Write the structure tokens for this entry.
Amino acid sequence: MKLWIKNVWGKRPGALLKKPCLLVLDAFRSHLTETTKAEFQKFKTDIAVIPGGLTSQLQPLDVCINKPFKAFMREEWNKYMCDETQHEVTNSGRMKRPSVSKVSVGENIMGRSQRRYCYQLF
């Protein structure tokens, strides 16, 4: 965490000015250590921690973008794995990794219901 604070957070636009700012983090254990808090204090950064179980209320992008995207990708992967006609194999008979074009992201990742829910959150 210390490296991330130094190399990423400390080099963000405006970091050199060291104006007071707020960073919202999840409740991952390394975010809550005294060492981490001290490092953030060097950059005049206050930490707000999202309690476990409140992701759906406090992190709407996880609910309406990341979750449908991951579900879509999982479905595409399962389709590919079940369709043996699409598989290319090596000389030793092992399945080759699919090309990007074979496992592609479609245009309609989120259905209408997810989009509607996303708009309601904002």
Observations:
- Residues 60-82 form the longest helix (23 residues).
- The two ends are 30 Å apart (CA to CA).
- The chain is about 45% helix and 10% strand.
- Helices lie at 2-7, 34-42, 55-58, 60-82, 112-121.
